[in-house]
From TrEMBL:
Species this protein is from: Klebsiella quasipneumoniae subsp. quasipneumoniae
Domain Right handed beta helix: 152-299
Pfam families attached to this UniProt entry: Beta_helix
Protein name: Right-handed parallel beta-helix repeat-containing protein
Segment forming the signal sequence: none
Domain of life (superkingdom): Bacteria
Amino acid sequence: MKRRSFIKNLLLLSASFKVGISLARGEKISPKVSGNTFLWDGEAVKGVDNRVSLQSEIDRLSTLYTETGDIQKLVIPNGVYELSAIDFIHSISGRKYGKCCIVLKSGVHLIGNGVLKLMDRQYGENDFFRIIASQRQSDRLKDVAIDGISFDGNAKNNSKSKQASNVLLECDSDILIANVKSFDSNGMGIMVRGDKSDAAKNIIIKKCKVSNCKNIGIQVTHFNGLDIFDNVISNCDDNGIDIYGDNGDGHALPTGSNFSIHGNKVSNCLTGIFPETVSDGVIFGNEINDPASAGIQVNRIHNEPQNIKIYANIVSGGALFNKV
């Protein structure tokens, strides 16, 4: 296998480079003082549905956060906890938006080493689904973490749908996803979304392992302040890491800025790293093996990518770089 090293600095679309990331490698996500830590008493028994129990505890802890302003931590202990799916109902409009198992809420940190596994036959072909979801618009997430939890999408025992993801969070600010394993999804492994009119702020995704997804491994859209580092992504049918900030025709600048993607290992995906319509960021020190299309592709839709610095990445077994 021919090995090529992309070690010369490449400055794209600008003669100067500015980046305003204020994140310190993911170590600080919220100024708030941590509150209580609770141990969830789920049943790690095959065939037992834990959805109601887990959702009730998340609801209770989010209420505590609202009342006190303190982060509430919920420990998911070792074991495999099966979850069923129900209709996802928007909190403001009352409309249905696909299905989910759990709705995460602001101020709650899910920690531990348990596995949340989707039960068999929980959604239909091409359905919009996610194991863990969140509300939209004014109820988007803030002060949230998922640390150490695994998500099993149980793809082979559910219908084909590239809209069926393991983690899909609608976010406002201060989000940490760390040490998460997300695998066997018919859609994406991990997705974090801001809003094109109000970017999600201070998003950190670190030290996660994402594998065997029928769509993108890790995707983040519409953000201001993003750090994706030290993750391992493998065997995804679409891009390994994908970031996106298009605003639609008529907007000069993208809503996807101030980012760093570094120290990740991506293998056997369509494209290793795919920055699309984003600005003011760095992509460095990543290792990409056997991409079907290219190691790194800078793409645009309407808004122009600007001030992106790419250097010291290693690509093996595929094309090095594409720019569209």
